[in-house]
Design a protein that fits this description.
Radius of gyration: 43 Å
Number of helices: 6
Largest sheet: 5 strands, mixed
Helix content: 25-40%
Oligomer: single chain
Amino acid sequence: MGGKYRVTGAAYPRMSRPRRRRRIVLLVLGSIVGLALIGYGAMQLIDVFRGDTGKRNSAAAGKDCATPAPKAGAVAASTAPQVALPQPGQITVNVYNATPRAGLAKAVGDELKKRGFVIGQVGNAPADFDKKVPDAGILVGSPKTDKAAFSVLGTNLAGATQQTDAREGADIDLILGDAFKELTPKADADKALAVLANPQPAPAKKC
């Protein structure tokens, strides 16, 4: 060879390998990656239109919200009384009338007696309450009075509020106010009492 490519002695020109093959390889790899991404996107769109994604999500949610089957005896335990309530015969009620309606305290006292309560004093309300109770009624007891006794008596008069004073005994005053119309019907009071004695468990979480 002549010119600059002439071989002289042990020296010889170094010819660089053409770069066209490298470009072809890169183009092929890029095409494969692009096709793979397009195919994956197409599959996702198909799942969306078919609703498969929603089904998979629902199935997963169902697994998360699934609760184990109750053990033997669990049902019986849930229906057993959860709260020990005093019986009406263990509660002494003093009935006082804070309204202008004559004979109201006696009528209410007689009805409560029929429902099993022990009736103590019956008459007009003390001066601190007379003509000063706008609500249906007030239950007044000692700070040491069992709260459950308030609840049992309260099932017979919806809307009655509760107060405490300095008394020592366990009796409870029922002071009838201006908004009083009648006691809760006995059937409804019995249902409310049953709910107190058998509180229901919290509802299961909805998925």
